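seq as requested:
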Amino acid sequence: MEIKQLPKIALGAWAWGNDGTFGGNLTEADLRPVFDTAMKAGLNLWDTAYAYGIGASEKVLGKFLRTVPRSSYLISDKFTPQCADPNAENAVTAMYETSAGLLGTEYMDIYWIHNPVGAPQWTRKLIPLAKTGKIGRIGLSNHNLAELREAAEILEDEGFKIAAVQNHYSLLNRSSETSGILDYCREHDITFFSYMVLEQGALSGRYDTKHPFPEDSDRGAVYNPMLPQLEKLNACLKEIADRHGASPAQIPVAWAIAKGTLPIIGVTRAYQAEDAAGAAALKLTDDEIKTMERLADGMELNVIRYWEKEMK
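struct tokens:
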């Protein structure tokens, strides 16, 4: 299969699964304008997973993808160990086929092992699927450096390589940088995908102590207590944004790109897709980057979520 060039930004459909993480209930009518706006802006790399609502995200995204040519988009999907079918001969292949059916595709441009639970057995079970040619790039998510090296050896023995790594990486969580993972990716020609760059909206400029996250959401429980501290960082982001004629939410995205990563931006509104497209064109100065990092590092906030670990 053809290995297509990746855009500077991927769009995340995690919230499309309506699994309670983000609160509210998104419908097809809500999301269709988001999809259309993104595709028109040239943002055609969509990141999802069966785990996002147990197929709900893939199902609605698949309905939209069926209305455009397969050559016009790229799909990033994941095998999640916690959702593995214990009765399947090969759980990786079984989940892949389920996801491909929901999305309406015969191949995945990127297919990930979502997390290292049970590693490295899932890397080994991915190899038969990779040999079918149905995967353009093999990716590993939420793996630390030792786990990446272990997986790389397994894949290399079979003639494959890690092409992508996806970890939580933001101004508030740079452990993939300090642990050497970003350097490892650069040395081995691996694309590093940064997720939660905006910390699920906490660094978007939309939320503060007077305008907190929905109380019925998982992110509200995590970030609302941090909002008093985050107001100073968000004020800095706004100052930099004003200087560039941008929105505050575009600055952490531009920062992630400047750090040599490919950010995954969750989108549930059309304007967010437009913001993401604009962020790809922003050029931050070295001083702006250092100022943001110094301020964020000084807060010493722990934003590692329950499914993650700090990369050491």
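The chain has twelve helices and eight strands.
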